[in-house]
Amino acid sequence: MNITRENRDALNAVVKVDIVADDYQAKVSALLEDHRKKANVPGFRKGQVPMGMIKKQYGKSLMIDEVNKVLQASLNTYLQEEKLELLGNPLPRVKEDFNWDAETLSFEFELGLAPQFDVDLKSKKKVTEYNIIATEELLDEEMKNIQIRYGKVSPLEEATADSNITGAFVNEEKEINKKGTFLVSDLQGKKNEKKFIGAKIGDVIELETKKLFENDHKLQQILEVSHDEIHDLDIPVTLTIEEVTKTEPADLDKELFDKLFPDGSVSNAEELRAKIKEDAEKQFKQQGDQQLLNAITEHLVETTKFDLPSEFLQKWLQNAGEKPLTAEEAKAEFDKSETGLRYQLIEGKIMKDNDIKLEYTELVEYAKGFIRTQMAQFGNMNPEEKELDEIAGRILQNQEEAQKLQSQLISQKLLAFYKENMSFKTKELSYEAFTKEVYK
Q1: What's the sign of the alpha-carbon dihedral 274, 277, 281, 283?
Q2: I want to staple 309 with a disulfide (CB 3.0 to 4.6 A). Which of 112, 347, 381, 405 is the partner?
Q3: Rounded mean pLDDT of the chain?
Q4: Beta bridge partner(s), residue 106
Q5: Across 185-214, average pLDDT
Q6: Assigned architecture for domain 152-248
Q7: pTM, two decimal places
Q8: Contact 5, 75 (CB under 8 A)
Q9: Same fold, 152-248 and 267-438
Q10: For residues 178 and 227, what is the distance between their CA atoms, to the nearest angstrom?
């Protein structure tokens, strides 16, 4: 056997594998003998069928199978030994007139090679890191929301400007059917408000999601759509009213504080306000970190220049999936995934160059932390370690769930690395201003 490689350029190569009879004949002969021992042919005793007859019937197919096994094994070994970094898988060059009876069987494979490049983390162009603060207006609103949430609710015959509406938002085309509660005063504009004044249980009201509420995040909570999606969502919905009520706000007193914090950590309105601010800015920090990671990703893809074996990858995509693609479909798929591929390569280089690794024990601990948070939401504040280990083990056996957690943990590690090794422009602003600026 002989394997050679011709580098067409820095990103494309062709590997040629020459296989001769000595590479496969012994195995084929053994398989033919085994077939001979088991063959039942009329006129011959079992095991006494002439080898010529066995070869005629099985020889070619056994030879082809064995050659393909030898070919695949030798190619894999070669690629590992040469330590080639490939994009996609080797593509065989199909020869329509291939001669399986030739003394030397020659096979060729096209390779797409990963590009070589450097990543500059000290670019003059800075990424913006947002410090999102809870404004006094937001704290006032949250204090009011808590009083409403724990207030005394009374049913109404028909809706007024200060009543609560509960109903189901429906859009069949988008498969939306979500039940939500809101204040009539939450609606944006007199036109929307007028649709509800005087409305009763059972009434069906036609609405548009665009500019439905003063705050888009109210609709986001009700419809349970992503933050990115809600700002551009412009669809008709119907709302069937199921309940009309009015709430008398709860007093900011010890009874309310004890309901909210049974541990006694909050005993007055100032402490409640401080707690709301702390919790809100903790959530803002998470959202700000996600935005920072997204911005860094875009920045690195934009500033890290390298070529890809585009033609090879499009050819590979044509037959990589369950359903073959046309050349046009493969190009469209490549164009759609190119940015993700570029960042994947950049991310891999950063992790390799800076020895950023993910140990299985870290993944287990991360999964356990995720489980603790979920269990706490259902009142189990102190689960046993053994129980956490068992649940984490089951989750990580699910390949899809394990991949999801692994991706999240790698993102955390990379963000920590970026914060230590990159400099940013810092901008402090309110949550409302942040959403307008980032998701405009």
Answers
A1: positive
A2: 112
A3: 92
A4: 18
A5: 92
A6: Roll (3.10)
A7: 0.77
A8: no
A9: no
A10: 17
Phi and psi at residue 234, to the nearest 5°: -140, 85
Residue 381: per-residue pLDDT = 74
**Domain 267-438 fold:** Trigger factor, domain 2 (1.10.3120)
The Cα–Cα gap between 245 and 254 comes to: 26
CA 295 – CA 437 distance, rounded (Å): 13
CATH number (3.30.70.1050, 3.30.360.10, 2.40.340.10, 1.10.260.40) of 2-112 reads 3.30.70.1050
**CA 273/CA 165 separation, integer angstroms:** 27
b/e 338-358 (16+ beta carbons within 10 angstroms → b): eeeebbebbbebbbeeeeeee
For residues 365-371, average pLDDT: 92
Burial of 243 (0-12, 13-18, 19+ CB in 10 A): middle
Domain ranges of the chain: 2-112, 152-248, 267-438
- Rounded-to-integer distance, Cα 16 and Cα 174, Å: 52
> 66: how many CB neighbours lie within 10 A of its CB?
19
- Residue count of the chain: 440
pLDDT of residue 57: 84
Contact in structure between 301 and 350 (CB atoms under 8 Å):
no
pLDDT at residue 397 tops 80: yes
